[in-house]
Amino acid sequence: MIATLVLPRVVDAKKLNIAIGSSPNNLDPHYATDANSQDINRLIHLSLVDASRQMKTVCRACDKFESRIDGKSQIIRFWIKDNLKFQDQTAVLADDIVMSTKNLLAKKDAPIPALFQNLVNAEKVSDKIVDLYFDEYRPENLTNLSLLKIENWKKGNRVAAGEYKLIQKDENEIIIQSALQTIHFKVVGDETTAALKLLNGEIDLIATTISPRKSFWLSTQKEIKTFEVEGSNYVYISPQHRHPDLKKRNVRRALSHLIPREILAKYKMKDTVALSQGMYSKAFEDLNLPNEPIKYDQEKAKELLLKEGYVFENGRWKKEDHQLEFTLKVSNKKHIIELAKAIAPYWNKFGIPLKIQSLEWGSFYRDLKQGNYDLALGQWIGFVGPDQMGFTFLTSSIPPGGANRGFYEDPIFDELYSSALKETSEPKALEYYRKAYTRLIENEAYISLWHPKIVWIGRDCIKSIELYPTGNFLALEAMEHVCHN
């Protein structure tokens, strides 16, 4: 039996004003690629499954699901909830899942359907049971189904099955409404403006990322509450593994020991991050490992470089006539540049010059995708399972086949990850995934920094919120508040 995600309804509330940082680009679920579009769609368009707060896939529209392997194919069977209805009060049946799947697969030009390349068919078993067919097993087959929205197409109209109906959408405001309350999402791009609107009562909740400084300042104000949870996003420095120095594990590990994570987290990030030992934060109940984050340790860095044959002469580390020095590429966001500049003095003082090169986002992302860097400061967001480490580190994922932009190559990792994909036993597959993940950490495939916390800031009319590690808006279904009764 698979756990079902049960969300209590809003208590004693009629209206809520929420600040978001940008307008959702598209509330058509086939085209919703940005975070705000997907999160608002979670409330309007019900899906079969979604990720829980423990980053496990659980039922939304189903009571349970079961997976089986038939040759190379995977079939996932879903038992649809009884008494589940569309917004026009017609019952949700297996035929609707089949039709929603066929409409998804027919949208070849849309970005979301492109994520379902392995999904080939849906078949009704009974009115309340449906099978989804995939041509091969992949861990993302199940997790991606949070993007398959259940819609009623019988009368030629798209009728959603979520608790909330879309009432209005323009560039500055999106209004959705359930039987118990109306939510006004107000687009406030400037964080100072959002803070002032919160303080004067124009908005009740800031549900978007703001800078650590502004978040800290707001937390000191009267009648303001801060809600936070360790997030699932991952901030890292990617080494270019084809670099003559960075291809050496001991060099990568030495550089990691030269980053004062605890100092940066406290003074630069204002304790809005949780230090990281790898890609998966504590939010990932099955994948997180009990490893300690790398400590700032100049002596350990020295020991590793000496072991690798480097020597320290005239204030610089070198090997033969080659001196250690690197360029760190970053985007031109102010807080990213400030972070990079805070790291550089520690490396420079140790004898490894670090040049910071900031680029506007398009240029930075182009160089990142092409692997055109020594070191790059990046962040992975929105991933929910083990498929992310395969997408990022498998040899077969070297561009253009995937996101292995640092050209990491490790046959042992490849074999462990492949063994997980072949394993039909879920516990044994998890064991392989954890071994593969351990291998990445031991090899310093990335230089891990931290996991940003999800921080929402509200007025004291907000009584409770249980945030999701992804920061998604399902938290709004389970919150309690007495704003604008």
Structure explained in plain terms:
The chain is α+β, with helices and mostly antiparallel strands. It has a domain at 234-452: Roll (Dipeptide-binding Protein, domain 3), CATH 3.10.105.10. Helix content is 27%, strand content 26%. The protein contains 13 helices and 25 strands. It has helices spanning 35-44, 94-106, 140-143, 191-199, 212-219, 249-256, 261-268, 298-307, 334-350, 361-370, 387-393, 411-422, 426-442, and strands at 15-20, 49-51, 57-59, 62-70, 73-80, 119-126, 129-134, 151-152, 159-160, 165-169, 173-177, 182-187, 205-206, 224-230, 234-239, 273-275, 311-313, 316-319, 322-323, 326-331, 354-359, 375-380, 447-459, 462-464, 480-481. The strands form 6 sheets. Strands 1, 10, 11, 12, 13, 14, 15, 16, 20, 21, 22 and 23 form a 12-stranded mixed β-sheet that branches. β11 and β12 form a beta hairpin. α6 runs antiparallel to α8 and α12 (411-422) packs antiparallel against α13. The radius of gyration is 24 Å and the shape is globular. The two termini are 40 Å apart. 41% of the residues are buried. Mean pLDDT is 93; it is low at 1-13.
Oligomer kind? single chain
Structural class by sheet pairing and helices: alpha+beta
Residue runs with pLDDT of under 50 for 5 or more positions: 1-13
CATH fold category name of one domain: Dipeptide-binding Protein, domain 3
User: Mean of the pLDDT scores?
Assistant: 93
Radius of gyration: 24 Å
Total strand segments:
25
Please give the CATH architecture of one domain: Roll
Shape descriptor reads globular
Distance between the termini: 40 Å
Q: Largest sheet, described in full?
A: 12 strands, mixed
CATH top level class name of one domain: Alpha Beta
Q: Can you identify the CATH superfamily of one domain?
A: Dipeptide-binding Protein, Domain 3
Helical content, roughly?
Answer: 25-40%
Number of helical stretches of at least 4 residues: 13
Share in β-strands: 25-35%
